């Protein structure tokens, strides 16, 4: 099967949008990602998937820590900044939790230390042991078929 067919099929799965952050040599780094999920309740583990060509791969390998920042619907520009879609020079605004940079005003900041990692094809899966969590109220930014979106109706039927 060709790559486009695979990518189109994966795009049919609606996801939230995260920015993965870490710090190396006193400098904060971030990248937009939607490959994130919870793994275990005991211990509390999550997994992120980082491509072999991503600059973030070496940074997490060296720092041993990362944060998953789940973006709110009004944070599309934050996502675009860390996805390299905004070309003008902008400084990101970070808070800090346990010495790890986190995205301000995200719905959730989940701070992790690397628990284990596994190379899988052209990505590395980092399993993170959750060290701290900050939650905020709001509605998530979504991603479907290569486009940002919003949840229109939060009522459950």
UniProtKB/TrEMBL annotation:
UniProt keywords (A-Z) are: Oxidoreductase
Residue span, Flavin reductase like domain: 10-150
KW Oxidoreductase (keyword) present: yes
One example of the protein's molecular function in GO is: FMN binding
Lineage, top-rank taxon, reads Bacteria
**Has UniProt tagged this entry with the keyword Oxidoreductase?**
yes
Q: Give the InterPro entries listed for this entry.
A: Flavin_Rdtase-like_dom, NADH-dep_flavin_reductase, Split_barrel_FMN-bd
Q: Which residues form a coiled coil?
A: none
Signal peptide position in this chain?
Answer: none
One annotated GO biological process = pyrimidine nucleobase catabolic process
Tell me what this protein is called: Flavin reductase
């Amino acid at each position: 099967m060709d790559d486009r067919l695979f990518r189109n099929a994966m795009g049919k799965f609606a996801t939230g949008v995260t920015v993965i952050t870490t710090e190396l040599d006193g400098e904060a780094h971030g990248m937009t990602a939607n490959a994130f999920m919870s793994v275990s309740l005991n211990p509390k583990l999550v997994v992120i998937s980082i491509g072999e060509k991503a600059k973030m791969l070496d940074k997490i390998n060296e720092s041993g820590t990362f944060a998953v920042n789940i973006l709110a619907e009004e944070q599309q520009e934050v996502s675009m900044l860390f996805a390299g879609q905004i070309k003008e020079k902008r400084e990101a605004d970070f808070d800090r939790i346990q010495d790890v940079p986190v995205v301000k005003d995200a719905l959730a900041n989940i701070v992790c230390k690397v628990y284990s990692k596994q190379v899988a094809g052209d990505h590395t899966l980092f399993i993170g042991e959750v060290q701290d969590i900050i939650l905020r109220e709001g509605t998530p930014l979504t991603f479907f078929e290569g486009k940002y979106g919003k949840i229109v109706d939060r009522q459950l039927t």
